[in-house]
Amino acid sequence: MDAQDYLGGKEERDEALIEEARKLFSGPVTFLKSAPDLKFLPDPTAPEIAFCGRSNVGKSSLLNALTGRKAIARTSVTPGRTQELNFFEVGEPLNFRLVDMPGYGFAKAPLAVVEKWRRLVRDYLRGRVVLKRNLLLVDSRHGVKAVDAEMMKMLDEAAVGYRIVLTKADKIKATELEKVHAETLAEARKHPAAFPFVHVTSSEKGLGIAELRAAVLGDSRL
């Protein structure tokens, strides 16, 4: 199954941008810092593209695939472990930053931890002037769940434009993937801040990674 099967005329493949993004991500990509609170955020001197998703959605794996590194973002078998904003710088000189946001949907976390997450994420989304786009990751095996819809509402309220990215597309049958993609696209169209296009990716197989790199680069220039 090719990523182009899901374009549906909504977003054309830009070969020049794809190649430019490939070269950029093959260059320096470095971890900058973790911010457990807004006061620890780096100076807003570069565009930022943030990644969010349910715990265990494959966010770290996707970041590793995009950057072509094996462990630029550490994967964890413990859902909900990361409770900080992690910043990575792309390019030298600096081109833009990737922001790995803490995962959500941790059912067993104490209420105080959940509230701290909500405050940190909400305040970052609403107050970060250099935030250009958010990528909302959704597991292809499950589609948009209630916690994803809550995050979409938070993004809508913060007026932060976001792309929905289906992860782990290699883990389900093509017919099921097509159904999940259609349902996710229909849900996206209900949200004012959602981009009217759904990316389909597999970090393990490389599906859709080149196109998503290009989208990230393009969004950083908004």
TrEMBL record:
Record-annotated EngB-type G domain positions: 45-222
Superkingdom: Bacteria
Keywords, ordered alphabetically: Cell cycle, Cell division, GTP-binding, Magnesium, Metal-binding, Nucleotide-binding, Septation
Pfam families documented for this protein: MMR_HSR1
Cofactor(s) it depends on: Mg(2+)
Coiled-coil ranges per UniProt: none
InterPro entries cross-referenced by the UniProt entry: G_ENGB_dom (IPR030393), GTP-bd (IPR006073), GTP-bd_ribosome_bio_YsxC (IPR019987), P-loop_NTPase (IPR027417), Small_GTP-bd (IPR005225)
PROSITE patterns: G_ENGB
Family: Belongs to the TRAFAC class TrmE-Era-EngA-EngB-Septin-like GTPase superfamily. EngB GTPase family.
Entry function: Necessary for normal cell division and for the maintenance of normal septation.
HAMAP family from the UniProt entry: GTPase_EngB (MF_00321)
PANTHER family: ENGB-TYPE G DOMAIN-CONTAINING PROTEIN, MSS1/TRME-RELATED GTP-BINDING PROTEIN
Protein name: Probable GTP-binding protein EngB
Organism (species): Novosphingobium mangrovi (ex Hu et al. 2023)
Phylogenetic classification of the source organism: Bacteria, Pseudomonadati, Pseudomonadota, Alphaproteobacteria, Sphingomonadales
This protein's encoding gene: yihA
